[in-house]
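Course assignment 3, question 2. Fill in each field.
Student: A.L.
Task: Predict the tertiary structure for the chain below.
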Amino acid sequence: MERAISCEFNLDTACVELKFADGSMISIDTVAVENEVADNMYQRSELEWLIYNQPLEYARFSGVPPDTYLVITPLIDLFEVHADNTPGYEVQEARLSLFVKGSYTAIKNAIVRTLLGADFTITDRRYIGHEDDTDYHHYAIDVAKPYEFQLEKEE
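Answer field:
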């Protein structure tokens, strides 16, 4: 298997499906996983949130995990305050969590340059720590970007 190119929850089969560049696919039966690991409704609700919002976080790497991967977590959507209460822009914010075995500096700097070049505002950067059990360094970059807001009219 090569790198994952997509990860989605399939409503028809109730499976998280990972598709790889070499054409192979892994399908994870979420009902079976919930029945095996969730002891109460709170754990089930956390698993269900991951399934719908971050299926890649739900999926486990098969075989050897990659030395570097990035998880994007949406944080907020907000409207800027306007005197006429009509939003002209919405600001979307997300956290990019970089996990790297070994030195993370070069890839972190490349990500920062790319984000700044694409007119993102970096609102926070911080080293979260080293995960001794997985040997990953965890670095977080929070970003924001304004988008023009257009009120959709009902037909």
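Instructor remarks: The helical segments are 30-37, 41-53, 55-58, 105-117. The chain has four helices and seven strands.
Grade: pending
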